[in-house]
What does this fold into?
Amino acid sequence: MKEIGPIARHTISVVVDNETGVLARVIGLFSGRGYNIESLTVAAVDQRDTTSRITVVTTGTPMVIEQIKAQLDRLVPIHRVADLTKEGSFISRDLALVKVMGTGQQRVEALRIADAFRARAVDSTADSFIFELTGSADKLNAFVELMAGLGLVEVARTGAAALRRGAQGL
Amino acid sequence: MTVKALNMAVGAKERDAGISATKTEVADTEVVMCGAQIILETLADLGVDVIFGYPGGAVLPIYDEIFKQDKIRHILVRHEQAATHAAEGYARATGKPGVVLVTSGPGATNAVTGLTDAMLDSIPMICITGQVARHLIGNDAFQEADTVGITRPCTKHNYLVKETAAVAEVIREAFYIATNGRPGPVVIDMPKDVQIEKAPYRIKKHVSHPTYRPQVDGDEAVIRKAVEAMANSARPIIYAGGGIINSGPEASHLLKEFAKLTGMPVTNTLMGLGSYPASDPQFLGMLGMHGTWEANHAMHDCDVMLAIGARFDDRVTGRINAFSPGSTKIQVDIDLSSVNKNVRVDIPVIGDAASVLRRFIDIWKSEGYGTKQPSLEAWWGQIANWRDKKCLGYVDSDDVIMPQKALERLHALVQSRETIISTEVGQHQMWAAQFLGFEKPNRWLTSGGLGTMGYGLPAAIGAQIAFPDRLCIDVAGEASIQMNIQELGTIAQYNLPVKVFIMNNEFMGMVRQWQDLSYDGRRSETYSSSLPDFVALAGAYGIKGMIVSDPAQLDATIQEMIDHDGPVVVDCRIAKLENCFPMVPAGAAHNEMMLSGDVVNKPKDDEALAVV
It folds into this structure.
């Protein structure tokens, strides 16, 4: 039954109590039940640090996605769960720090591409840059791929942070 | 103010001003106590009258407080796993949460099996575990284990209490979570220094939770749609599970009322047995892998299925893509995650079984569906044909006690008594489910989801503690009983009149059955070698022991067991190689059942073999 239906990528937003172990509960649920995690971000999001927001990107059939939502919803410290992908349009952004080493023409080309992607150089030495880039996961992938031929050293990436479009909150 | 003084003050005020007024006043009274004292006060305040536990270093302060009070009774088990199963038995028999107290490290890890068992069977349980002092946590201290880490996936929720001032609040919240929504086990990990430190304690009555508020009443529009579907059905069936029992006795009454109103046949899951009277003509028996011919065929051929408090377990459904292919499926469950997990449901109603059944009944009556519904005569005719198969039939013998016979006689001889049956896990469990016919809820204690051998004896202890006057019988196998046989010591200590009825076939019978059916009879490691002399073993604990192997002596032995005023162990020697039928073979559909005497085919392919 679980295999039926197309596998799709879903971005799920979860508001949780900001308490010890809550992230372990969420991750344990995914690993224990065999759900995928493509990316996961978490940080306290209110001024008093009482709630955190977890954004998890996962893949599965419609039935599995529905299960993930229901399973998350019954964890005690979880306030709200929303499947942003299912609910309509939303904004999703990743951040990447990309370290590139090179000199001469290679360095110029890296800078040129960074400019085209609206990446900022946040660290610079005579023979290296760290670029900071935000955008969709696809955009970041494309940038990293281009840098691979231009002296890419290493990449650090966040997962997705996402909010639904429009005036309404979660 | 000491606790005793506080209690006396409460007592005096209760007499003067009535309970509610007293509680408000007391709520404003703060008393300083140590954490251990707060634990016991809070438990007593929550109505706990018994704790199943085992002492150790990290819970010494709590045990010291237990010594000093007399509101809560402590039952000393012989192994922490048994404490958890005893608490489950207590919870299952009473509907109240069972409470467990164990020490840190090995105490906590020994409790894990029982916690997982309670998780899978949705049994409300509070398990307080000792923990090393806060400053030692993470240092690999003596008897330290990451209890919250270990128990996270096998509890409904768990807590590490980091300050004494939070102790009472955490315990109250734990009770709320264990008992509300779909019940389950909750662990409270209590560092030793938290138990010793003092903090103000305040009696508080009202407990709610900011985020955990399960939906109790179903959506009205969906409920109406469900009732309409049932009213239009010519081949309906009710498939009722443990959720009916968890909802409380009222749900069982309402289930019967609804079945009578609609004329629908009823089948129970293993966990649901007792929620519908077995002797009622509308009852088809248990369904699933070892369910009845009529229940499984009715499930397969029905046009509308009402699943209520049941979760489409793989033991119930058989091969999932052949499960009840043509039916409209209605599911009533308090837990949304039980819906659309294994089987696609057409009409899901999220809510408490009793609440939803009440609405079903009201709507059925107010819409006058009784006069409009199609005739169920043809359906019942079909069911009568299936029943004619006499699927629980077996070939009796004058030489050897057949297991089915032993349970039929046990059932007949306990009829006049208020009886609670527990089981271990295996063939004897399935035979007990098939032959013991339960009329009321909370009389049947078995490990369904996890299938824990060693469950039955401690569960019977828990039930016997809750109901000293009832006849509590653990129907066991000779292999399972050895997994918690040390609890004979607990029975002896408290002189609990628990009867242990061991169906001894010298095999781990269910595994042996599978080896014979699927592995060409290679009985790898399933012979119960070097069995103890159970009569002598019982004698070693000062318990009456009996042995029976002659069918002619069966009745007399069972009667003597029942009549004996105290615990009894019966070693009932049964036919060694009898298989448990009916059976839905691995990877098969409901309508591909095997009956006793059928030629057994090996599983078709590796995929079928992989279905446990």
